[in-house]
Amino acid sequence: MTFLESIASIPSVLERMVKTRSERMEVLERHLQKAESRRVVFIGSGSSYNSALAACPLFDRVGLDARVVYPNQFTTYTELVDTEALYVVISQGGSTKLVYEAVEKLHAAGCPVCSVTADLEAPIARACDVSIEMGCGEEQFLYRTVGVDATIVTCWQIALSMALATGAISTAEASAMDCELLDVICMLPDRRKQALAWYEDHKFSLMRCRYLMFAGANDLYSVAREADIKVMEMVPLVTRSFELEEIIHGPQNAFDGSGGYILFARKGVDAQKAQGIAAFLNASIGFCSIVGEAGSGSRDCVFQEASERFGLLEYLTIAQVLAYKLADDHGRDLTRKLNAGINDFVSKVL
Questions:
Q1: pTM of this structure
Q2: What is the SS3 assignment for 145?
Q3: Domain boundaries, the chain
Q4: Count of alpha carbons within 13 angstroms of residue 243, beta-carbon side
Q5: Which of 162, 171, 125 is nearest to 33 (CA)?
Q6: Domain 3-169 belongs to what architecture?
Q7: Architecture of domain 187-329
Q8: Neighbours of 4 (CB within 10 A)
Q9: What are residue 120's DSSP bridge partners?
Q10: What is the pLDDT of residues 247-293, one digit of tens each?
């Protein structure tokens, strides 16, 4: 399997997850019958953090409070534990050392913990009170891709389960959202093909970039963060990501022609802002592309998303293809680690 084929496998994985939501969330729903909560705290690093962050707006939309913290922040510096919140730890490999320590800290405080892992036999899953399978299985590549989409969908399903438990939504409303999500999933093959074509059209400009900056607002900020980490680890290339407004609060002083700029933006309140930033960058600095509904220029990757609520998966597909193509054209072997010797000095796993 190639990395592109791994990206292509995502829709079928997600479709299966959506169609089995009730079974996947059954263990959590049994827990929520005994300990209903309107707040959730996600704990995870890297892509796990980004995936949870992507899901937070849906929690808000169904009347729930959600936030994300890094494992080191929680285990080392957090003193107060919210005993009324549902804590969800995320680790695709299931053996991240600090995530495991977070579980121990929560148990010491008397809090039950829910895990999201790719393997229910992983140490973190076995240590938790509620264990949910991520849904992605074992990825063949080092750089988490299928697991990112699967984690986002799992977090959305946690939101639906919590909202059902509190009465914030009805069973019919949850089913309607499942259908809406399936509509988005059906569009992912088209986005993959579109991303490949867009990349080829702008390959010269993208390949000459010495660094890339990504930006997005609301849930699309999480897409910018994930594009950032994927390009940095896969190409590798120096990258930065910003909330859309924040990219013009200081970072604009670092704009120069050796960089490339990708803005994830849909129609609506931030469209004019994204268009203004892109117009400035293309006129005065260098290469900038708007990805999504807000785009209209020749450098943009424009599409009509199937659903604003779940459409970030379409934007994420563009980011995944971009990272893969840049890595491939830079001659990277995506089965090999870089700087693996760091593990001789510091370890992040049990």
A1: 0.97
A2: coil
A3: 3-169, 187-329
A4: 7
A5: 162
A6: 3-Layer(aba) Sandwich (3.40)
A7: 3-Layer(aba) Sandwich (3.40)
A8: 15
A9: none
A10: 999 999 999 999 999 999 999 989 999 999 999 999 999 999 999 99
